[in-house]
Write a structure and sequence with these properties.
- By secondary structure, the protein is an all-alpha fold.
- It has one domain.
- It is built from 9 helices and 2 strands; from the N terminus they run ααααββααααα.
- Strands 1-2 form a two-stranded antiparallel ribbon.
- α4 (68-93) packs across α7, α6 (130-146) runs antiparallel to α7 (151-175) and α7 packs across α8 (184-198).
- It is globular.
- The relative contact order is 0.14.
Length: 238
C-alpha cells in the first residue's frame, strides 16, 4: 500500500472524535441545516407529534370560537412548561432503581435515558420513545371525551402542549448533533445540556427551556462546577 501523502485528510472515527473531546459530536453528525432537518424528520417521534398536531389543529378549527381562553391556555403552558420538563427530567428520567420488599423496581423510560447518557451521540436514544406517545395520545383521547363543554379548550391545551413537546424534541436533538441554528437562545440551550451530559449530570436539567434551572438554582457557573465522573453511568453499577 502506498504511503499516505501529508496532504490527505483522514476523517476520525466517531469513537476517536468522542475520546478526543467528549463534548464534540462525531464526524458523521449532521453539519448543515438541510442534513439536520432531514435526519430529524426520519425519526418516528417528530412525525408522530406532527401528525397529532395536524389532527388537533383541524379539530380545534372545526370547534370554532378561538378567544381569550385559548390565549390564556397558551400563556399558562408557556410559563409552566420549563417546570414540567425540569420535573420530568429529575424525577422520571433520572429515577434510580430501588428495592421494595426485595423486588427491584425500575421502569423502561429511565432505562432508556440511562442508555442515552451512556451513549449520548447515538440518536436512537435521543427521541421520546414511542410507548410514551401511545400513553400521551391515549390521555388526549380520554380527556376529549371527559371534557364535555370544555372540549374546545381541551383541544387548545393539547395542541399547545404537543407544540412545546415538538420544540423540546428539536432542541434536545440539536444538542446531540453538530449543526445548531446561529441564534443565542439555541446555542445556550445546546451548551447547557452538553454540560449536563459531559460535566455533571446533577445540574442543567432544562432542555428546551432554562427557566426551571434558574427557578430551582440548578444552573451554576460551569467553570465552578466539578466534573461528577458519573455522567455516563449516573452512578449506577451495571
Amino acid at each position: 500500500m502506498p504511503a499516505q501523502r501529508a496532504t490527505d485528510t483522514v476523517m476520525p472515527t466517531a469513537d476517536e472524535t468522542v475520546n478526543h473531546n467528549p463534548m464534540r459530536p462525531p464526524a458523521d453528525s449532521p453539519r448543515t441545516a438541510g442534513q439536520a432537518f432531514s435526519v430529524f424528520l426520519r425519526h418516528p417521534s417528530p412525525l408522530i407529534i406532527l401528525l397529532a398536531l395536524a389532527v388537533l389543529g383541524v379539530l380545534r378549527w372545526q370547534a370554532g370560537g378561538l378567544g381569550w381562553r385559548d390565549v390564556a391556555i397558551a400563556l399558562g403552558l408557556l410559563a409552566l412548561f420549563p417546570i414540567n420538563e425540569w420535573m420530568i427530567h429529575v424525577f422520571i428520567l433520572h429515577y434510580r432503581p430501588r428495592e421494595i420488599g426485595g423486588i427491584k423496581v425500575d421502569f423502561y423510560l429511565p432505562k432508556t435515558h440511562r442508555r442515552h447518557h451512556a451513549d449520548p451521540w447515538n440518536l436512537a436514544w435521543v427521541f421520546v420513545p414511542r410507548h410514551v406517545h401511545v400513553l400521551i395520545l391515549g390521555a388526549v383521547v380520554l380527556g376529549y371525551y371527559l371534557a364535555g363543554h370544555w372540549r374546545a379548550e381541551w383541544l387548545s391545551f393539547c395542541f399547545v402542549y404537543l407544540l412545546l413537546g415538538l420544540h423540546y424534541e428539536w432542541v434536545h436533538y440539536l444538542t446531540h448533533i453538530t449543526w445548531c441554528p446561529p441564534l443565542a437562545y439555541y446555542e445556550r440551550r445546546v451548551l447547557e445540556h452538553r454540560w449536563h451530559h459531559f460535566r455533571n449530570e446533577n445540574y442543567w436539567w432544562g432542555v428546551s427551556m432554562g427557566m426551571g434551572d434558574r427557578l430551582f438554582r440548578t444552573a451554576p457557573n460551569a467553570k465552578d462546577t466539578a466534573r461528577s465522573g458519573t455522567n455516563r453511568d449516573l452512578g449506577l453499577k451495571r
